[in-house]
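Run folding on both entries below.
>entry_1
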Amino acid sequence: MSTIDNKAYAKIVENGVQAVETVQELHSAGYAAEHIYVLAHDQDRSDRIAEAADAGHIGLKEEGVFTAIANLFRSRGDELRAKIISLGFTESEARFYEKELDLGRVLVIAKRTA
């Protein structure tokens, strides 16, 4: 995976197996597990893939308190877009990725820390 640099990285994959492979490639490229995130439209699927891949979870640190609380009352689509935005993506990018998740795909995001 030669195109990985210090910027945020996002990749849409077709299924959990490809997500696990992508996470493993990111680990090999130097990304720490706590800075790799896996999102699927279904929360349980996200959790299962993240656990199998040794990826982190988007939480208070990434989202902030207000977004995390607001997500308790949002639809899953709104929650996913808010999580994606909290990782540094634009609203239009978040809408694009969320539509891909609606189609059953999986989003792998990685961020390097300074």
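>entry_2
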Amino acid sequence: MNCPICSKWQDDPDQRVVELKHTLVSLNRDQFFAGYCFVYTRNHVTELFHLSEQVRNGVMAEVTAVAQALHSVFSPDKINYELLGNMAPHMHWHIVPRRSKDPLWPRPQWSEPHQEVVLKPEEYRERAALIKAQLKNILG
């Protein structure tokens, strides 16, 4: 299987945030929306109903904790959550901190093209460390 989400953790080491019980968390390469993260299941699965209730609840608790951490670190006006999987059929959420002053507000983040913001490797690592530290506070 050639799944870009299954290999994301290995392919993008500078963008890694944290390994949680049910999910992995990575920064999106494009940081136009500061803090934009992916939360993806450790195992290749495509649908929520493929998970047991216990695992599904655990996954959703981790998605929620990541959103809370992003809110604490970046102070956005709103957090956007996207779970599509049409292009990459592996369960993954786009967790996107949004500001009412961003040029695409209030439209979805991919409603029109924008100039990508690509950070230096050390900037990804610094941003990831801030999010990871906040997640540790939230999850204990």
